[in-house]
């Protein structure tokens, strides 16, 4: 049986290498490819997707997997092998229902959709993307039908990112979160009139090369391994891993706003540290994959918010920021800097949102894509719906489509079902950080001294190295001693912003 598992690993590595090639092509499309290459790239992606699908459903692969699955309950495999068999079997059960032609059509539509989205976003004209988005929504509905679902077609798509989580559960969770956020935000907004915090005090002229230098310094200090990774620019910040030894980050820059890149860099480095923390020897198996997208988001959110927006983080980095950009930071105290950095200021852009309003951005997106997939709203109406919800939740209206419905890349990639992972990531992050703080009583002091390695090692031990050995709930039990609880996130938010805004209990 061990030899059979070894044979399965060999085949899984072949598939993983094909997926790596497609990931590299996707990265190139976002970062380097000229616009004119879009049509040919779509055909290449479709062909490779079809080849990968064929390999996964080949007779010898399925025969081998079926034999291993039959014996998986006989305790003949270690925990990692059993997790791999379980994960691959679930993927096989899903993939065998999806025709190869659909896989190829979807790959073409995604490649074309990304190019159309980029063009539409630059022109701030949703109509340039609407046709491709309509195709992607129709394909997503068809995929849900192929996979199967009991209640909502969105269930089938959500499960691709958050295993065993259902639409109704997410809807209930987000409604509960709204019940906390809206009154708490009301208190913050009332206090904000008195405190008058604003990001405007950070405005200036920040040379891009100096920004890039500072961003690299931050990523390096956090633990990013440049021998196994690189940094580039793209329209939308993202992280991809071709392999644990080849992890790519992108960010974006604004000469007028240094934090346009810094916060994104810390966020994406959190993702990259997770990928670099996976043991290379597990490449191709479940142990080389994140437990879920929500767990992956927990790593970026933990570094971005619990660490990257903390007093300790800036006790260490603020003198360097002042040295590189004496105007305006030379005249701003650390406490004023910290308060204004964490100011709660509603804005239209999700990636620039503060910790509180960010969650409302996600709720908006979840509700829209759920309704799109369930067929209760139409693509042509999205700008109007988006703007109305933005007004309802955040009290403002986007100036144009680029600032509104076109700001995110996810739908152009066919990523319907991903957005709830962001909020789950916030909840996981708060609970993990609370546990890390208990086990490392000097954590805040270490961060203030620029010693991030102990936190990183803790995360490597508790999260990164396990991959999919555990499902998310099991992983949280292993790491924190209990299942996911929203109370940690709520307590974290209440304490932090009560201190900043001097809120009364």
Automatic annotation (TrEMBL):
CDD domains: M32_Taq. PROSITE patterns: PEPTIDASE_M32 (PS52034). One of its GO terms (molecular function) is metal ion binding. One of its GO terms (biological process) is proteolysis. It is an enzyme of class 3 (hydrolase). Binds 1 zinc ion per subunit. Transmembrane segments: none annotated. It catalyses: Release of a C-terminal amino acid with broad specificity, except for -Pro. Broad specificity carboxypetidase that releases amino acids sequentially from the C-terminus, including neutral, aromatic, polar and basic residues. This is Metal-dependent carboxypeptidase.
């Amino acid at each position: 049986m061990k030899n059979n598992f070894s044979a399965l690993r060999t085949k899984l590595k072949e598939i993983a290498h094909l997926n790596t090639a497609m990931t590299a092509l996707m990265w190139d499309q976002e970062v380097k490819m000229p616009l004119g290459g879009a049509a040919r790239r779509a055909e290449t992606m479709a062909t490779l997707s079809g080849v990968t699908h064929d390999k996964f459903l080949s007779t010898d692969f399925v025969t081998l997997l079926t034999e291993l699955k039959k014996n998986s309950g006989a305790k003949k495999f270690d925990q990692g092998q059993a997790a791999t068999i379980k994960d691959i079997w679930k993927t096989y059960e899903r993939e065998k229902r999806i025709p190869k032609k659909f896989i190829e059509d979807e790959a073409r539509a995604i490649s074309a959709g990304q190019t159309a989205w980029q063009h539409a976003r630059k022109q701030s004209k949703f109509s340039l993307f609407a046709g491709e988005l309509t195709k992607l929504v129709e394909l997503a509905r068809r995929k849900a039908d192929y996979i199967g679902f009991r209640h909502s077609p969105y269930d089938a798509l959500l499960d691709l990112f958050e295993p065993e989580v259902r639409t109704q559960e997410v809807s209930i969770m987000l409604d509960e979160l709204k019940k906390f956020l809206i009154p708490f935000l009301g208190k913050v907004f009332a206090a904000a009139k008195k405190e008058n915090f604003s990001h405007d005090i950070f405005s200036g002229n920040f040379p891009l090369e100096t920004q890039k230098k500072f961003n690299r310094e931050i990523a390096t200090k956090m633990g990013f391994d440049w021998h196994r990774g690189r940094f580039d620019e793209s329209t939308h910040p993202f992280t991809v891993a071709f392999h644990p030894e080849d992890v790519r980050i992108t960010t974006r820059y604004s000469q007028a706003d240094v934090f346009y890149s810094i916060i994104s860099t810390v966020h994406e480095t959190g993702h990259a540290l997770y990928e670099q923390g996976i043991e290379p020897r597990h490449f191709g198996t479940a142990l080389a994959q994140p437990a879920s997208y929500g767990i992956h988001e927990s790593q970026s959110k933990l570094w971005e918010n619990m660490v990257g927006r903390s007093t300790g983080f800036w006790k260490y980095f603020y003198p360097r920021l002042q040295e590189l950009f004496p105007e305006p930071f030379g005249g701003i105290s650390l406490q004023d800097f910290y308060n204004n950095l964490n100011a709660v200021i509603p804005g239209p852009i999700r990636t620039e949102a503060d910790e509180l309003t960010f969650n409302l951005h996600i709720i908006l997106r979840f509700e829209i894509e759920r309704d799109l997939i369930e067929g209760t709203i139409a693509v042509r109406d999205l700008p109007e719906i988006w703007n109305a919800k933005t007004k309802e939740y955040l009290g403002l209206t986007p100036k144009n489509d680029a600032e509104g419905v076109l700001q995110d890349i996810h739908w152009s990639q066919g990523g319907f079902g991903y957005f709830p992972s962001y909020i789950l990531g916030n909840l996981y992050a708060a609970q993990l950080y609370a546990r890390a703080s208990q086990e490392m009583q000097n954590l805040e002091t270490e961060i203030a001294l620029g010693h991030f390695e102990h936190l990183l090692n803790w995360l490597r031990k508790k999260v990164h190295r396990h991959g999919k050995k555990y499902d998310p709930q099991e992983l949280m039990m292993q790491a924190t001693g209990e299942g996911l609880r929203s109370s940690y996130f709520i307590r974290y938010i209440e304490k932090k912003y009560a201190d900043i805004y001097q809120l009364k209990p």
